[in-house]
Write a structure and sequence with these properties.
By secondary structure, this protein is α/β, with parallel strands linked by helices. The chain has three domains: 154 residues, 5'-nuclease (Rossmann fold), CATH 3.40.50; 73 residues, Nucleotidyltransferase, domain 5; 77 residues, Nucleotidyltransferase, domain 5. The chain is 35% helix and 16% strand. The chain has a six-stranded parallel β-sheet, sandwiched between helices. The chain has a three-stranded antiparallel β-sheet with strand order 7-9-8. A two-stranded antiparallel ribbon has the order 10-11. The protein is globular, with a radius of gyration of 23 Å. InterPro entries: NYN, OST-HTH/LOTUS_dom. GO terms for molecular function: RNA nuclease activity.
Amino acid sequence: MINDDERIALFLDYENLAIGARDGLGVTPFDFGPVADALAERGRVVARRAYADWSGFDEDRRLLARAQVELIEIPQRIGGSRKNAADIKMAVDAIELAFARGFITTFAIGTGDSDFTPLVHKLRELDKRVIGIGVQSSTSALLPPACDEFLFYDRLPGVEPGQPARRGRARSRPAASAEPPVVEPVGEPVGVPVEEPAPPVADEPAQAGDGDPQLLITRTLAGLQRHVDGPVLASRLKRAVLRKDPTFDEADHGFRGFGELLRHLESEHVLQLRTGSAQGDPEVTFLEDGSEVDEAFALLVDVIRHLQASGSRPPLSGLKDQLRKRRPDFSEKRYGFNTFLSFAKAARARNLIGMAWNPAGNDYLLHVPG
């Protein structure tokens, strides 16, 4: 039943996440999509709020508006009071929502700041499940153990790290007084959402997706299998797919029903269907026969062997492009891996390749043992 899904409220300490992703991963602007996808695999997101001084995040505001995130303005203040105002406002709103909306089962707190650890403890006291989300390089060691589940943004499917802005641990907050203080109007309460015109968003017509549904389904299935206890039923997979892409319709791809689409993917040796607990609702899993995965690993080994013939070990970054030169439709997600790094580590676990971290290049170097 759809009521069995978790109902999630998402609160983002946006400056902490955006600056951590910029300085630690070289990702700018902050890509909210991987967070939305990860939560869609876990349940229905019924509230989305992000807290920041949005004067410094113009492009981010537009992207978050497209993702239906409510923007809570924390005005610039003198000294360090702005940080406290953001933290207090976000904590108060979360506790208020926990009491006012009893149907919410899970709170997702996007931050790496240990100041939110008491909020996590209080929410768990109220019998709420808490999912933390943070950039690994800017997340306090105190925060993840306090949560029921913690998602490092770096490891989410779809996050493509660029060149970090600088080496070393990223700051969780921008330096205070980096800019001249802005004088606020008298009488404006701290942290109250400011009524402002919505960011300009192009008025584009909604379009049904016409791409291959295989990637969406396999990526969603892999995500469900990582955190769901027990088998993944077709009905649950369909609900998770719709949470990721509400416009998804198997009829757009030439199928009369979701079951027919799954049977087609089974005939293509992409996944496997088994009899489920209810008639017409089969269990969905990846093929136990690893022939297709073995072919992908063989391609990886062949490409690495060819590149290392030049006398140097190839780095992990850029290697996926080399595989796609051989096989343009290659995607690690087709085989159930959420990132290319996970795919490479799986090959290493099978003793097909070797991987060594290169601090100078801030990347892995790969080779084929021989």
